[in-house]
Amino acid sequence: MKAALITGASRGIGAAAAELIAGAGYAVAINYRENETAAKEVAEKITDFGGTAITVRGDISSPEEVSRIFEKIKDEFGGLELLVNNAGISYIGLLQDMTDSDIERLIKTDLMGAILCSREAAKLMIAKKRGSIINIASMWGEVGASCEAVYSACKAGIIGFTKALAKELGPSGIRVNCVSPGVIRTDMNSGLNRETLRELTEDTPLLRLGEPEDVAKAIAFLASDESDFITGQVLPVNGGITV
Fold it and tell me: Which of 126, 186, 193, 201 has the largest count of CB atoms under 10 Å?
């Protein structure tokens, strides 16, 4: 059985992706940082329909904890065929109001975390000459967002990292792609007020906000054999919004 690690999979996009990936036949490691109860609930949903899932606690912004995450993956699964770098945080506010710790935390989680996890995953995948890494960026990494300058920079970095790593790992049979969501109904966007959500909905040609399942379907496609000649690409899942 192929094995997958999905970071930040206790809720939202990560949880939806974990269920779809498990349904496609992967044994899934559900990574979480704090919410053990939610992570176990996702794992139970997967095992209830006959899938295989484990929970793996760890903060992907810490090199030491990333090492421990991958040690557990090796112990439980013996290897890894799929990594989904989904974990992330946000900060909405003016750049001049951000503290050094605000900036550092955002960069370590949203950019460095994906780099650290990809480094460890590559070691396992290169040994087998196969694998897929899927990074979750954001439309703000493509066009930028006012009051989310550092977040936008991190997600733009994820896009550049994806394109470069795809070239680096391609000769080893490993594909690297990126999903770039638009405005999705997740906890990360729950702080947006009703007026802002209304404006974003009106700016979206499909006239609705995205659901975690919309992004999960794109992840599942890029993880499947149907995309085995696709690498180094950014797949927008945004309802056509171009702001």
Answer: 186
